[in-house]
């Protein structure tokens, strides 16, 4: 049996192209597992569901490696889990990833290419850090935008309710939808500034 796995990171992204490629490669629509979740998330329930139905001789087909793994370590664990079920993993884009073959070069290429894949991710992170440093030097980097900035209506309302002394933190959280931890931090900061 050939099972397909297709994933997009957000609900707004389109999964149709992946499904089309999987069907063209011989996977039936009813055997394609679709997931809309970030690859960084460890709890990918649809992936786990697909792995649970694998039987000896089955094949897992993906359009490309990034759809099913998020790191080299993740890839090795996944390949090991699939192999334990006497099934195989194959990527349409990354043609080197085909564990269905008994060819020892397949295993070798898997190791080498997974390492290259991880190296590319690590280099990307280095370039991002370098870009941030350059932006900081030029005064163009402001960092991540704070969720609860000084003009945030919800936080300001929460502080007003707190100052009134009529509400508990839990009640303020329910009324304003401002997180308890964020509210405590803001109160501590205002007390430090002697603003309340």
- The separation of the N and C termini measures 67 Å
Q: CATH superfamily name of the largest domain?
A: Resolvase, N-terminal catalytic domain
Q: Tell how many strands the DSSP assignment holds.
A: 4
Domains, number: 2
Mean pLDDT: 86
Shape: elongated
Could you spell the SSE succession in H and E letters?
Answer: EHEHEHEHHHH
Give an account of the 3D structure.
This protein has helices at 16-24, 45-53, 72-84, 104-137, 153-164, 169-176, 180-192; strands at residues 2-8, 32-36, 59-62, 88-91. The chain folds into 2 domains: 2-101, 3-Layer(aba) Sandwich (Rossmann fold), CATH 3.40.50; 153-192. Helices cover 50% and strands 10% of the residues. It contains 7 helices and 4 strands; from the N terminus they run βαβαβαβαααα. The protein has 196 residues and is α/β, with parallel strands linked by helices. Helix 5 (153-164) runs antiparallel to helix 6. The protein has a 4-stranded parallel sheet with strand order 2-1-3-4, sandwiched between helices.
Q: What are the defining features of this structure?
A:
4 strands, Rossmann fold, 2 domains, alpha/beta, 196 residues
């Amino acid at each position: 049996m050939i099972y397909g796995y297709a994933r997009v990171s957000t609900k707004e992204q389109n999964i149709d192209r992946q499904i089309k490629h999987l069907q063209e490669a011989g996977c039936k629509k009813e055997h394609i597992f679709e997931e809309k979740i970030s690859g960084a998330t460890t709890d990918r329930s649809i992936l786990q569901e697909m792995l649970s139905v694998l039987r000896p001789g089955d094949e897992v087909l993906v359009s490309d490696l990034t759809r099913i793994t998020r790191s080299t370590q993740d890839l090795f664990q996944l390949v090991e889990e699939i192999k334990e079920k006497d099934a195989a993993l194959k990527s349409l884009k990354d043609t080197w990833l085909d564990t269905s073959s008994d060819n020892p070069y397949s295993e070798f290429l898997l190791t080498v290419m997974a390492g290259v894949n991880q190296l590319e991710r690590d280099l990307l992170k280095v370039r991002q850090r370098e870009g941030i440093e350059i932006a900081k030097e030029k005064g163009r980097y402001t960092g991540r935008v704070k969720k609860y900035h000084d003009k945030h209506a919800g936080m300001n309302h929460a502080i007003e309710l707190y100052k009134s002394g009529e509400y508990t933190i839990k009640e303020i959280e329910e009324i304003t939808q401002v997180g308890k931890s964020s509210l405590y931090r803001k109160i501590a900061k205002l007390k430090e500034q002697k603003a309340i």
